Amino acid sequence: MRSPSVRRWHRDFVRSWQVYAGVAVTLCRGIPELCRELARARKDRAYVNSEASYALMRLLYVMSGGYLFRLLERYISPSALPKTRFRAGFTKLHLDDCAALTKLFDMQCYSQMQPARRGKIGDFVKDPMGRIEIDQADLFASRELAELATSSLWKEAARAILGTKPIAVLLVAWWSKPSDGSARMLSESAQAWHRDIDRLRELKFFFYATDVALENGPLEYVQCSHLPSFRALSTNHGRCTDTWVRKRYPGGFVSMTGKAGDVFIVDTQGLHRGRPVERGMRCVLQLEFSSSVFGAEFQYRPRLPLRETWPSYPVWRKALEDDPDAWAPLFGRQNQGS
User: Fold this and answer.
1) How far is residue 100's CA from residue 133's CA, in Å, rounded to a whole number?
2) In the CATH hierarchy, which fold is given to the domain comprising 83-335?
3) Torsion region of 176: left, alpha or beta (phi above 0 gives left; psi -120 to 50 gives alpha)
4) Is the pTM of this model over 0.70?
5) Mind giving me the DSSP string for 132-153?
6) What rounded mean pLDDT belongs to the chain?
């Protein structure tokens, strides 16, 4: 009769091979279609790929340690700069006037666990979730925030890092607050270590609307972890444990504490998390640029239509007229050409 240790070894061995066999089948089935979709995306930067290709894309990132993403990005965007030009993976700016960000404080909020439940942030203080979303319609309707988001400063900063014409693909805002600390809540609140592998190349601007000390849950980032590396090799493209991160990246991480008005530009394909909040709350506006919409774009259709009743309408309309390629992906397609 085999000993318990031999049985465990045999069980783990079988499970490992089952995982790798499943991965091999996924690759064989999905790569031809992924190649066809990449060819379409090269000709049409607005092409929205399938969910299957997105899932395969995420798997290819972790299996290649990010190296394959560099080749795919260069295929779609030949002028893209290498990530080594943005070596640390983040940089910091500051807004002299952050009055626009205070508009977030009075906007409607909702919990991801109960999307139908709406209210101001004060109504969610006792909610177990560590992240409370700010309503998209309120966010996009604000003239002050539209003027902030469409400032040429951010687009030019993104162009300097990406090396290509940046495309705005996401504008969101949320509150981070104390949660019950469970693994599920930390994962749902993006307070567990992870990579954003939503697109071949992505760059996010985090605008702090509140002062953020360590106890308020700052963004934390493993420097240089956005660079292709064998340390990133894995079969897991979801959340990562503290132990795994410390073992693979013993150099540690940076806690991005700051004042209201601080802006952190981050390549979020690097390992990062929102530090679990111990006290108080943190409010953040996030603007994301990419070199193409290829990736998770299918998740964001349909988007909000641009509404003439919004106070921000003239601001967004001007941005769309001046540079439709950059700003059209933020809105529903019915508004992009009109």
Assistant:
1) 18
2) Jelly Rolls (2.60.120)
3) beta
4) yes
5) EEEPHHHHHH-HHHHHHHT-HH
6) 89
